[in-house]
Amino acid sequence: MATANSRLRVRRQDGVIIVEFIDRNILDEANIQMIGEEITALVDSEANPKLLVSFANVDHLSSAALGTLITVNNRVRPKNGQLKLANIDPQIYEVFVITRLNKLFSIHGTTEEALKSFT
Amino acid sequence: MPANKPNTTDATNGGPAPSPGADAGAVTLGNDPTLSEAVQNAVVEAMDRHGYGKASRFAVRLALAEAIANAFHHGHRGLPAGTTIGVEYRVNGSTVWIAVEDQGPGFDPAKVPDPTLDENLEQPSGRGLMLIRAYMTRVAHAGRGNRLEMAYDKPAG
Asked: Which residues of B86-100 are buried (b: 16+ CB within 10 A; e: fewer)?
């Protein structure tokens, strides 16, 4: 959950948990672990989590951060939840394409588009 | 996609020869994210001085961050937490050359599974080396497999 040391901004809209990152660079493993724990706690708090992760302020993203997103996705799906990603910088989107994770995740251009895609 | 075609078989030729105006450094790092970020910043700032664009700086920062993370988390698995790695870099107007060396037993890069295969797509780890290969121009493993050398050539134009 959001704490004084949180690396996330969390809000709720239309039954969807919207998560944004405070850091521009999500490269540091300790930070990524903390982010993963925070998002996992949010997922665990919902029966059928609808989660939107926005990368609006993010300039850099490492493979460890991608791994955390996969772990979150693997936790959301058994609860019949949905995970959507949005506002990904073109350079970072290229990382998703190189790793083929654009095939795994539901990726949308904007927060509004992602919100409309939840069922 | 990255401008540079990855080539994992070519040696990196030891990097650009020291020359007037080139930026170079060699640092020893503990597993401290502040130090990791500092060396990333030093390389990226040197690239900026030598006229590399945003996409190039993005590529090299990512590759260096992945190489450092791999050294600590895979190279040093089972070793004491304080075990250090070495990072060397040289930047001139045409090439960025970086070596990251850990103190572990080394590994065989041919045995790293392809993370882009359908059966591996949901594995949370194993993408660092493929991102390094994708973004750098040349990547080579040296020593006993505990030293990664990589080079990035400035794109033409």
From this structure: ebbbbbbeebbbbbb
Instruction: Reply yes or no on whether the pLDDT at A112 is more than 70.
Output: yes
Residue B14, pLDDT score = 66
Q: For residue B126, tell me if it sits in a domain.
A: yes
**Can you tell me the distance from the alpha carbon of B68 to that of B66, in angstroms, rounded to the nearest whole number?**
5
The ipTM is 0.91
- The total number of structural domains in chain A stands at 1
Span A2-22, pLDDT tens digits = 455 788 999 999 999 999 999
Range of the domain at B76: 23-153
Confidence band, pLDDT 50/70/90 cuts, at residue B7? very low
| Continuous H helices in A45-117 | 63-76, 90-98, 111-117
Cα of A63 to nearest chain B Cα, Å:
6
Minimal Cβ distance to A74: which of B36, B62, B122:
B122
Q: Mind telling me how many Å the CA of B23 is from chain A's nearest CA? A: 23
**A101 assigned to some structural domain:** yes
Considering only CB atoms, which chain B residues are within 8 Å of A35? Answer: none
**Domains: count for chain B:** 1
Nearest residue in B to A75, CA atom: B122
Residues in B closer than 8 angstroms to A59, CB to CB, are 58
